[in-house]
Every structure is written in C-alpha cells, then in structure tokens.
Amino acid sequence: MTKQFVDGIMEQVVTRNPGEVEFHQAVREVAESVEVVIAGNPEFARAKVLERIVEPERQLMFRVPWVDDKGVVQVNRGFRVQFNSAIGPYKGGIRFHPSVYLGIIKFLGFEQIFKNALTTTPIGGGKGGSDFDPKGKSDNEVMRFCQAFMSELFRHIGSDTDVPAGDIGVGGREVGYMFGQYKKLANVFTGVLTGKGLTYGGSLARTEATGYGLVYFMTRMLQDRKTDWKGKTVVSSGSGNVSIYAVQKAQQLGARVIAMSDSGGYIVDPEGINLNTVKRIKEVERGRIKEYVNAHPKAKYTDGCDGIWTVPCDIAMPNATQNEVDKQAAETLVKNKCIAVGEGANMPSTPEAIEVFLGSGVSFGPAKAANAGGVATSALEMCQNSMRLNWTFEEVDRRLNMIMNSIYDQCIGASEAYGLKNNLVAGANIAGFLKVAQAMMAQGIV
Ligand code: NDP
C-alpha cells in the first residue's frame, strides 16, 4: 500500500518535473511519511490534497540582466516559486548561488510549506533565488544585481501576498538593496521582506534566529536523552549565518565546538573554535575559512568540505547546504559515537544517511523542524512591522524559544500518535501536513 501510494505520487511528480532531483527527493520523504495520514483520512485522498500540494500555486522564472564593473552585460536567471498559501502569504528566502535552478527552488519551497506550518505562525510556503554568484563581486555589482532582480520580482510580492527573506548568499546587505528597489518601484514602505536592517524595520534576533532556534530544538532532543550541551564536542559545517549563530548558542550552553567549514574546506581547532575570528573573516572581510589558521596556528585546515564529518564529535550540525551528509558520512559519525544530529541547513542529509541515523539510535532533528526558527522569527518581524512596534532582543528570543519548544512538542506528538515514537522526520512531516491539509480542505478545491 505504502509503496503503491508513494510510487503513484512520485510518478506524477517525476513526469511533470523532469530532472529536478532535489525536488523529487523532498516530495518522496513527505509522501512516505504522510501516507499513513491519508490512509486514515479518506477525505484527503478524495480531495487530492497531496496531489495539489506537490503542484506549486505559481512559479515564476525571469531574466535578470545587469552590468558589471567592467561595463560588460551579464544575464542571470531569477526564480520565485509561490508554493502554497493555504495558511498565510507565501513566505521563504531567496538564494543566490551558482547551483540554483528550478529544482533547487522547488525543493526549498516545498519544504517551506510544512516548516512554516510547524512554526505556529500564519505563513504559507514559497522560495526564490538566482544562479548569480555574489562571491568575488564588488558591493556595487551586488547592488546592481539586486536592483535588477527586484525590478521584476516587485510586481509579484507584497506584505500580504509574498514576503521573501534571505538564504544562502543573501544576507543583510542583499536584503537592504532589494528592499530599497522595492520601495522605489512600489512607492510603499511596507514589511515586504524580512531580515531587514534594524534602522528600517528589521527585528532584533532575526540574524541569530535560525542558529539559536536549532540549538533550542536540539536542547529538547538532548533532554530526552537525559543530557545537555555541557562539555559536548560539536562539529558544525558551514560558516555562514546559520552555522555562526548555532555555534554561538552552543558555546554559550557549554559545548566545545571544534570544527567549521566553507565550500573550500574545513578547520579543526582542538582548543575550541574562536567565533570572533570566524565572524571577522566571514562577516566583515567576506574571506575564506582557511584564513582562520593564520590567527590560530594550533588549528588545522584541510581542503575539501566533506571530510568534516570524519572529525569525532558528540553532536553534529550540518549547517551548510543540501545533501552534504551522505550514507558514508553518517556511518562515520555513528562509528565515532555521535549521539545527536540537528539539521540547520535544508535537506543536508541524504535519505540513506537519515536511515543510518534513525536505525542507530542517534537523535535526529530534521531541517523542517530544527531550522524553522529563522522563518518563525521572520514572521515575528512581519508582526512587529504590522504593529509598527519593535520588541527587545529578549522578547524576540523568548518567543523564538517558545516556538521551537512548540515545534518539538508537535513533532513528538505526531510521531507518537502514528506509532512512530521519536521519529522526528515522520513527526514533522505529519504535523506540518495535517495543518496545511485541514486548511486546504476548508477552502475548497482551489
Ligand atoms: P550563508 O550563505 O550565510 O552560508 C552558507 C555556508 O554554507 C557558507 O559557509 C558556504 O560556504 C557553505 N556552502 C554553501 N553552499 C555550499 C556547497 N555547495 N558546498 C559546501 N558548502 C557550501 O547561508 P545560510 O547560513 O543562511 O544558509 C545555510 C543553510 O541553512 C542553507 O541550507 C539554507 O537554506 C539553510 N537555512 C537558512 C536560514 C536562514 O535564516 N539564513 C533559515 C533556514 C534554513 P562558502 O562561503 O564557501 O560559499
């Protein structure tokens, strides 16, 4: 029954979306988890809820022409996939990375539907991006690109329609340039983007939110094992927004973080990563992680980022990109006695790796639950923008912590209700799906 149901959905998805392998992977995982829900709720099957969810409500693809510093015309491709608005306006980040194509944006947008449902805030799912590579570009080039990108996107978004945010390659600088262009074109000052600067509507703690939220979520995973962060050895891949603030919170809670990476390679510092150095290199100088060893000669740099999972640790946080932990990496982590894995990145573990973790008693926090703190805090930013009020850092952080606890409870509750105790992958998919499915049922066939 399971195989037949999932195969049926997948046949439709693969035929309609050829070559979009990351999207197929994301859909399969959800279909496998929610088959049991649909079997128990025949009205969902009759209303073809899952068949509708896998089809984006709207997808946009557009030309982004701009002129580089040498006066040469460049042409990139822009995307915005407005996946599902059953529970609120489309919401999800924008990714600038050369690997971006429709399949990446669709996998991210699809995941976002369920993640956003779990946050308890009223936001639908969407995602956008471009194959533009901000690396090595001047500030002026990044600004011109962001303006060109927004020159098309602005007509499709709005504070009650679709509210983009940052993701890989899109931080405060890019959000600022896009916001400025939106305001100029739409002639309205509104909370149309989140992750904004603090002087023009941004929320305190949004920068920290995904990383902090991941650690709050994992704190509950560790509590269920009757332990905590104190004295634990931690490895966190990536050295961008998510990784830096996950490391910061883990260190505050007493963990010893010994390894971080970027797409070039990874560093191991047995004395514990000095986060100020990482922040200077990555946030201020926009440099490479290998420069860390210049300031800390006892640390070691290794070329190639995959090797980071061979560094023995108690806790692993894949915080860089999709499919960065494969079966072999998962087996190595298990062999080295890793007890918990929390996904800060989106879909960083392959299905085979997840199977290894779930089968070995490792506590596993899947992305759509564990990294939902970022988008949840974006929803808090929308809320403050609507009220024209600013909450303190402590207030936002308190709400973030509450939301992460609620997400954990929903995942555990759903996993237990369906006889899959402690399987947070199934729990997250089921709890997220149920909320969206019920909203779709109430709104008719649209
Ligand atoms: P950043 O751009 O700030 O940092 C990304 C980090 O991952 C960098 O260290 C980058 O290295 C590395 N990286 C990116 N692509 C690859 C790759 N193909 N191979 C190896 N390393 C890579 O992005 P974020 O920290 O914001 O995002 C990281 C992950 O977290 C993504 O999966 C994103 O979707 C997810 N996420 C982000 C949220 C947010 O609020 N920012 C919210 C929820 C999820 P380099 O500098 O060399 O490119």
Explained architecture:
The structure is a single chain. The protein has 446 residues and is α/β, with parallel strands linked by helices. Among the domains are: 58-190, Rossmann fold (3-Layer(aba) Sandwich); 209-361, Rossmann fold. The chain is built from 17 helices and 12 strands.
Q: Tell how many strands the DSSP assignment holds.
A: 12
Q: What is the alpha-carbon Rg in Å?
A: 21 Å
Distance between the termini: 28 Å
Tell me roughly what share of residues is in helical segments: 40-55%
Mean pLDDT: 97
Strand content: 15-25%
CATH architecture of one domain: 3-Layer(aba) Sandwich
Strand order, sheet with most strands: 9-8-7-6-10-11-12
Fourth CATH level, the homologous superfamily of one domain: NAD(P)-binding Rossmann-like Domain
**Structural class of the secondary structure composition?**
alpha/beta
Bound molecules: NADPH dihydro-nicotinamide-adenine-dinucleotide phosphate
Q: So what's the CATH class of one domain?
A: Alpha Beta
Under CATH, the topology of one domain can be stated as Rossmann fold
